Structure formats: structure tokens, C-alpha cells
Amino acid sequence: MDFILASVIDGLLLGFVYGVAAMGLTLIWGVMNVINLSHGPIIALGMFGVYLIFGAFSLNPYVAILIVAVLGLVLGVAIYYVAVQRVINAPHLSTLLATFSVNMIIIGLGTAIFSASPRNVEFSLGSLTLGPITLLGTRVVAAFAAMLVAGALYLFLYRTRYGRYIRAVANNRDAAELMGVPSNRILALSFGLGTMLAAIAGGLIATFFPFTILAGGAYELKSFVIGVLGGLGNPIGALFGGLILGVLEGIIPTFMPTTWVPVVEFLLFVLILLVRPQGLFGAKS
Amino acid sequence: MNRKLLVILMLLMVSLFVACGGDDAAAPAAVDEPAPAEESAAPAEEAAPEEAAPAPETQTIVVGYTASQTGSQNVSSTRQVNGLMLWMNQVNAAGGLELSDGTKIMFDHVSYDDESNTDRVQELYTRMATEDDATFLISPYSSGLTAAAAVIAEQYGKVMVTTGAASDSTYQQGLTTVFQAYTPASRYLTGAVDLLAQLDPTVKKLAFVYENSKFSTDVVNAAKAYAESLGYEVVLHEGYDPETTDFGPFINKLQDAAPDAILGGGHFQDGSTFARQINEKNLEVNFLTLLVAPPEPDFADLGDAALGVIGPSQWEPQAAFTKASADEAGMEFYGIESDQFVIDYEAAYDGEEPSYHSAGGYAAGLLLEKAIVDADSTDPVKVAAALDAMDLLTFFGHIKFDTTAESHGLQIGHSMVYIQWQEDGGNLGKQVVWPAEGATADALYPMP
Amino acid sequence: MSENKVAAPAKKLRFMPQLAGRPYLGLSLTLAVIVIMILWPLVTGKDITRETVFTILLSVTLASSLNILLGYTGYVSFGHVVFFGLGGYVGFYLLAIQGWSLWMAMLAGGLSSALLAYLLGRAILRLRGAYFALATIGINEAMRAFINNFKPFGGPIGMTLNFQVYRDYGGASQALWMVFYTMGALTLLAVTVSFFVRTSKFGLGLLAIREDEDAAEVMGVVAPKAKTWAYVLSAIFPGIIGVLFFFKNGSIEPAPAFRLHFSIETIVMVMLGGQGTVLGPVVGSGLYQGIRGYLLTSAIFKNIQLAVAGGLLLLIVLFVPDGVIGWLRHRFPFLRRVLQ
User: Fold this and answer.
1) Residue B105, by phi and psi: left (phi above 0), alpha (psi -120 to 50) or beta?
2) pLDDT digits (tens, 9 = 90+) for B215-235
3) 261-290 in chain C: CB under 8 A from chain B
4) C150 occurs within a structural domain
5) How many domains does chain C have?
6) What integer pLDDT is reported at residue B317 of this predicted model?
7) Domain hosting residue C133, numbered range
8) To the nearest whole percent, how much of chain A has pLDDT over 90?
9) d(CA A65, CA A46)
10) B336 CB contacts (<8 Å, ≥6 apart)?
11) Whole-angstrom Cα distance, residue A193 to residue B324?
12) Please, are residues B407 and B375 in contact by the beta-carbon 8 Å criterion?
């Protein structure tokens, strides 16, 4: 049964990266109650960012991810001011459609520029063999990077002034405003952080999987599932949600056909929404 | 506030205007595709009376098709269209076709974006068949879209040559005007099983790992039945979701099942990912055959992971289908030869290497051309009859269509060639390893 | 972090049906628009007009059905295409494999979608706002993945109709006209149902739920029951026309049947025309399909048509959230009696 162990470890490593993508989605939801439907294309842009920087300047992909993170932040803030700010207090449908139109714009321009052909970042860190288990360098590094990102986000939210502002706005926007928190700017910052996390996740994924401009869609759906597993609005829960999903994806194929994985995943997703909408780790509200 | 409202009002007016104009304006939009060489002749004229015309006259025939300019099939579809356009430009540059009564036939095209999904395929094909006066149709890329388009072709009695559409089921619907250029899915992988049997008669255990989509499932089901009839044991037969990027669970499963050979795959992205991860995970495998991805020139980007991988291909540049080989076999040969096709294609598209999708696009046009010449007419019924009777060799291979009622139009002449990525003086290159008579090198076995 | 957010600021009951006066004027106008559309191909005598109008009628039916849930009840069903796909699959199976007639297959498709909605409704309509929207996405994806594995429906290969089938309906081209008129009849029916739902007491209950569900319950609306029936009603027509669409298409596969994007497009049509109105989905569908048809075939935009469509959608969401009909009603109150 070595292969079960191997699958679990593979799943865990990937789970960290999925977790980072979901943290972005769930952070935005937690702060402003917006489901960001442009999440997937932004993950794809993160992939292309690393691909282009790596290709043009032969920069180490991990350095490229730092640049992509900054760009992701800027892009997110821009999306907030253009598309989200005006409808932030409107019914959910408006923000869903506003972010979906951003999705269409990115995919439309992206396909025109890059076409839908697959890309690959030609980068390898070799592999590590321990008995029956082979670990890929890029995936191990990605998992560590993901942990680092999660740790940094935690420190930011709980140890800095802006982090406290974000939490205050998330808890009660009006009260925060009364206390002198510039809530609109904090919302923009939160949206930027969310897209930054998506872009970082995309960049990490690009180091080991090939991708197209349309590849983000699958990770967006995964992010929904993970976000719900960990509790929507709970970024640290999302990391654990990612690990759970990763392990499920590793284990389910060992006893049933792989094509059943999405059936199980999405049924679980609906079930958790119904039974524990606060997520597996959230306290009952 | 008022100004804002004004702006909105204007925007709405514009979109309304656009919307209303859309249906009418769209009709004559004979769209210019990436036409490499020269623009073809004026819009279609009504088909003139054929027989009675005394003086030689020029008739422009419109060929309609949809291309996936956006969406997931964008890459293969673009290559297919490039091939088709190369054919059209060459025919027109050569002065068109001449019928026995002296009529000159020139070709023009009309095309729309199908966005890689079936929603609008039927509407667009109807538009081409009725509004844009397309006399002949070429299929979209992929079996799913073609199935939808075929219904329209049949309804309007338009001859449609399909390319990039391998699934057998489309041709078993009782259609009469649809003709397949590709080797059908049911014969896609059977040659790989033959090759394996010849390479190593001791092999017994096979694994089929494939994309859970129409095309790959059709292919694998047929190959599996064939392998089992030869006495192979199938130790793993499992599909994966089309969006799969992580093959870790599969590779772990394969490690456990320990097959001698792995066959399967699906399309370019999943196939190349699978090959790459098999290599990264150091999975011991002697024989690996994947659909679609390996014959693509871009597969070389995988480097070491590409080495030894085998793939079925509809056509390869090295394939030696020439006038000479046709004479030898006592067959008719028609059109360009492979080396010339490669040279012309690369010249037309900035050095882009043609893949079998490109060749398929060109071949579809070529078959249409030949059928018109044979029929000595552009009448759909006569052209369909000429296609029914066709049995010849082209640069693309042997072409012959099934004429039985159950699977009319199914390709029965053409067969696949199998390529393997091999190292040649430090460079990765494709070599044809099967069928034996067309092989350019011996297969590397076991794969490195 | 917090997850409870008060529902959107209660909107004024701007779309309350005008029961006094001439309530049927709005319906008559809407039906007249649709009848003109149905007759249009007869006037031009062109097959392509028929195809274009078919696409619009299909959208109108889907959008009007969705409007019962989205516009009247305020529940955002993002995965509504699941009813189109499931109905289509069930009907196609009966038609192609079991040899049923088209009419019985359509009926079965509609009923199976309604049944699914009934079963689901009891469970997921407890969820509010974005949670409900997410659950509908999950259900659609789960269904797609399930059908992909379900062998009787052909799994990933799907099913194809033998061309012979069309001959039972008077040959291929005759069958196309028949499909078109059937679609037209269904569209008229769907819009009429949508109108009577809105003007009925049941519909008033739905509107009350949309404005404030808790208050509605206090006022005596049995919200779970009303919502479930709204959900069922909004699922029947997509199920029926799913069968009709795939019958015309000649083949069915999981990915095109359960395309999430298709659901979202339907929402956009409802929004564009004006959610909660009867005429809105009709206008929205016509506009949306017209714009898209133009962008797809125009020489300037066809390479970036998706991005242009996204830009237009964004402008509408930001600046005209009530849609065309909503905006007109708001701007010109005297039109309210006519534009419902």
C-alpha cells in the first residue's frame, strides 16, 4: 500500500498551493462579502506573469513570483476601484456579475494575445526519492512557499495596523468607519491582497504544471470548494481546507475511478454548505 | 447626475443600434482569415447555368467552415484552417480548376468563430449554407462540433468534408453527404498494439489511461477490445477528467499495477503533462503511446520526457506517399507531395512547422478539389458521387470512403502512422516507427 | 471574520404589479413582441432568420423561467443550466435509446427537471445570498461529473440520434420548422406562466420574500414552500427545451449540456432587460443575442468579442442595474402600465 502513502504526500504538497489560491478568494469574501468570479483568470495571469518574466529575463521563477505578487496587488486594487466599489452595497447579484465581467474581459483579451495554447515554465529542481516515494523539488518548494505566504498573511492581519483595520472592516464596516478607519481604502487593499494571493498561487502552480489562459477556471472551482471546507471568510481555515482537498484528491483515486473525484468533491461541497456553512473549522455563529 | 444618465442613454442606444444592425450586417460578413498569400476573388456569384455556356467563364465557389478562434480548441483549429487556406490560395494562384466545358472554378471562403463550443455551430453553419451561399462545407475542429455541423450539412444537402473529427459515431447517424478525411477513432490506436506485439511478444500486461472525453473514450474502447482479442491482459483501464493537471494519483496507481505498456492520453495539454510527470516521477515503463500530443512539434519542449514516447499521427512530413509509391502500388495519385507541402506551408506561415492538423485541413480542400474535377461539376449530388467513388493516394495517405448505409462517409482507406521521439546526434526528432513499410527508424524499446 | 451581512438595503417596491387598471396590457404587449419574432422568419422566408430567432426564443424561455426565481424571489441560481442539461439528457435518452416520441420525451424532460428542483429546493433554498449561488454551482458541477461517469447516458461519449429520426417528422427540413414552432409555443407559454405567477397572490408572496424574507414569514408567507414551488416552476421549461434543443442538435455530450457559462449568460439576459419584470427577459435576451451575434461576426470585434461583451456587461451592472425595462419604468412612470 505504498502508493496510498505516496498519493497522500503528493496531495498534501499540492494542497498547500490550492490553499493559497483559496485564501485569496475567502479573504475577499470575509472582508466585503464579494464572491470574486475573476479569481480564476487572475490565477492564470499569475501563471503567465511567471512564464513571461522567466522567458524574457531568465529570472529565477521564485523571484518572478515576487514581481507577480506586486503586480497582482496593483491589479486587484485597480479592479476594486473600477468594477467593485460602485456596487459594493448592492445585492449579491451585482458584485457577482461585476467580477464576472472582469473575468470575461481578462479571458477575452488573454485569448486574443496569448491564444489558448499550452505554456510551460521550463524549470526543474530535480526530485528526491525516499524509498517508494518520489518528491519533486518544485512541489516541495511550492509547499514551503505556500506556508510562508500563509504565515506572512497571518502576521499581517494580526500584527500590523493595516491588518487590524482589515479585520475591523470585516467585522463591522460602519463601526470601523466611525473609528476613523478609511474603509474604502481598506476594502481596496483587501481586494488587492486577495488577487495577490491568487496570482502567487498561479505562479507557484506554473512551476510544475503546464497551463493555458483558461487554466484558472479549474482552480477557481477548487477554491470555492476549499473556501467552503475551511469556512468562507476564514483565510487560515482555507489553508487547512486546501490540505483536505489535496489529500482527498490523492486518496479517492486509490479506491475508485479518478473521474468520480469531482462528483465526490462537489457533493461534499454542497453538503458542507448545507450542514456547516461556517466551514469545518469555524465556530458556530 | 443628468450627464451620467445621458451617457448611459447614449450607450444603450448604441448597443441597441448594434444589436439591431447585427442580424442584417452579419450576413454578408465574408470574413478574411489569415490569408497568407493573396486575397481571393470577389464575393460569390449565383451559380451560373453550366452546360449551355459557350464561352469559358469563371465561377467562384464558396467554401464555408467555422474555426475555433477562441476557447480550448484554438491551437489545433488554427493549424487546420492554415492548412485549408494554403490549399485554397494555391488553387486560386494556379488559376483555379477547369471543367471540361471550359468553366473556370475559383474558390472563396467564409468563416466564423465557433468559440470551441456547440451552442452556435448550427446557427453559423445554417448561415453559411443559406445566406453566404457556401456550396461546400468543411467541418470545424473536434468531433463534438462536427457532429452538430453534420446535421446541418445533411439537412441542406451540402457536401461536407470533415477533418479533425475522428469519432466514428458521427458517421453512423445515417448521413449521406458527410465525408471523413481522418482515420476514425476506432483505428487510432490499434496499430500501436500491433507494434508492441512485434517489438516484444512476451509483453502481457497493458494499462489504458485516457481522457474522459468523447474522442479518447471512443479510441481507447476500440483499442482495448482489439488488445484483448489478441490475448493481452488489461490491468488498468481508467479515465481522467479533461481538466486534470496532476497525474500523481494515476502514476502511483500505475506503479502499483506495474503494466508493461501504457496507452492512452487525450489531447495536447493533458498528454504532454502526463508524459512530463511520468518522467519526473521516474515511473519504469517500457512502452508509452499517447494520443494527439506526441505528433505535435511543441511536444519537443518536454526534452528528456519526450524521449521514446510514441504517438499515432494522421500524417507526418516523412510519410512517403508520392507519385512514385502510388505507381508502384498501381494507384492513382493526386495533388502535392509531402515535402512540397512542408516547404509551402513553412513559407506561408513564418516557418511554422505543419502538424497533422495542418495537413488534414489541406487534405480536406484537396479532396473537395479532386471530387469536383472527377465530377466535372460543382453539383452537390455529382460531387458526393465522386467522393463515394474515390479511391486514391494523396500526400495525406490512402483515401477511400465507406459507402454502406450504416456508416456512410467513414474513412476506410487512410490509416495512422506511429511516430516516436528519438535522439539523433543530440537533437530530439520524430521518427516514423510503424507501419513497418513506412518506417524511418527502428523503435526504441524499451523506452529510455 | 464575519459572515453575516444584512441583506441589501430594502428596495422600494417599484415593480409591484399594477392590479388595478388593465393588467393584461403588459402581457399582451410582451406576447405580441414574441409573436412578431415567431412570424419574422415566415416574412423573410429565410432559414437563417429562423435559426437566429430560435436562439433568441430559447434564451427568452430560459431567461423568463430563471426570472421567476431570480427576479421575483431574489434567489441567484448560478447553476440553472443543470435543469436544461438534465432535462435534455433524460429526454434524449428516451428519444434516442428507448424510441419515445419527441413530445413524450419533452414531457419527461420537463418533469425530471421539476422533480430535481423539488428535491433540491427543500434542501438548498435554506441558504441565502451568495451561499445559495455557490450551492447551485456545486450542484451543476456534481451533475456534470456524474453524467460523465453514467454509462446508460453514454458517459463522456454522450449519445447521438440517428438521422432517420427526423424522417418521422416529415424529413429534416420539415422537422426544423416544427422544432421552431414548438419552441415558439413554449416561449409564449413560459412568458404567460411568468406573468400569471407575478400577478398572483403566490407571486406577491415571492416578491415579499425578495424584499425581506424574515418579514414575509412574519406576514404569513410560508417562505420555504413558496420558494420551492418557484424553484420548480423555474426548472420545468429549461428541462423541456433542453430536449428540444438537443433533438435539433442531433447529439448530446456532458460538457455542452452543463456549461456553467450558459447559466451566467442567462442571468446576464435577465439583468440586461430588467429582473423582476415580465417583458425584461424578453428584451434582454433579444439584446444580448443580437449584440453577441454581431460581435461574433463583425470584422472589427471578432477577435476580442469576449472582452467587449465583458466591458458592456460591466457598464450595465455599474450604471443600469435595473436593466432596460427597469430603467424605462423608473425614468418614465407613465410607461409602467405597459411595460411589465
Assistant:
1) beta
2) 899 999 999 999 999 999 999
3) 262, 286-287, 290
4) yes
5) 1
6) 86
7) 23-257
8) 58
9) 8
10) B90, B344, B362, B366, B395
11) 67
12) no
The C-alpha cell that represents B87 in the structure block: 490549399
Angle, alpha carbons A238-A244-A246 (nearest 5°): 100
Cβ contact A30–C2 (<8 Å): yes
Q: Which residue of C has its CA nearest to A225?
A: C138
User: Which residues, listed in sequence order, are joined to residue B112 by a DSSP beta bridge?
Assistant: B66
Residue B193 has pLDDT above 50, yes or no: yes
Q: C-alpha grid cell for residue B298?
A: 511543441
Q: How far apart are CA B373 and CA B94, in angstroms?
A: 15
* Eight-class DSSP state of A81: I
| Domain A2-118+132-275, CATH | 1.10.3470
Residues of chain A contacting B212 with CB distance shorter than 8 Å: 259
Q: What is the pLDDT of residue B50?
A: 47
Q: Which amino acid is at A209?
A: F
Q: Are B133 and B62 in contact (CB under 8 A)?
A: yes
DSSP per-residue codes, B197-224: HHH-TT--EEEEEEESSHHHHHHHHHHH
The amino acid that residue C337 corresponds to is R
Sequence letter at residue B268: F
Cα dihedral: A207, A212, A217, A218 (round 10): -60
Shortest alpha-carbon distance between residue C101 and chain A (Å): 32
CA C74 to chain centre: 15
Please state, in angstroms and rounded to a whole number, the distance separating the CA atoms of residues A169 and A31: 7
What is the predicted pLDDT for the residue at B308?
92
| CA–CA distances in Å: residue B144 to residues B119, B215, C246, C252 | 11, 8, 13, 9
Identity of the residue in C5, C129, C142 whose CB atom sits nearest the CB atom of A270: C142
pLDDT, tens digit, for every residue of B99-150? 998 899 999 999 988 887 777 888 889 989 988 889 999 999 988 899 889 9
Scanning every residue of chain B, which has its alpha carbon at the shortest distance from the alpha carbon of C172? B155
Task: Tell me: cis bond preceding A182? Omega within 30 of 0 counts.
Answer: no
Q: What is the pTM of this model?
A: 0.85
Cβ contact A249–B249 (<8 Å): yes
Within 10 A of C171 (CB to CB), how many other CB atoms are there? 11
Q: Is B307 helix (H, G, I), strand (E, B) or coil?
A: coil
Q: With respect to residue C292, please indicate whether it lies within any of the assigned structural domains.
A: no
Q: ω into residue B242 within 30 of 0, thus cis?
A: no
Amino acid making up residue A196: M
pLDDT of residue C18: 45
Side chain identity at residue B275, one-letter code: A
- Residue B394, judged by CB atoms within 10 A of its CB (0-12, 13-18, 19+), counts as buried
Query: Which residue, A199, A277, A234, A226, is CA-closest to A28?
Result: A234
C200 vs A61: CA distance, rounded Å: 62
For residue B138, what are the β-bridge partners?
B161
pLDDT digits 0-9 by tens, C59-114: 999 999 999 998 888 898 988 999 999 999 999 999 999 999 999 999 999 999 99
Cα B32 to the center of its chain, rounded Å = 21
In a domain, C332, yes or no: no
Chains that touch C (3 or more CB pairs under 8 A): A, B
DSSP state of B168: G
Instruction: Tell me how far the alpha carbon of residue C111 is from its chain's centroid.
Output: 16
Q: CA nearest B406 in C: which residue? A: C162
Cα gap C228→C62, rounded to integer Å: 18
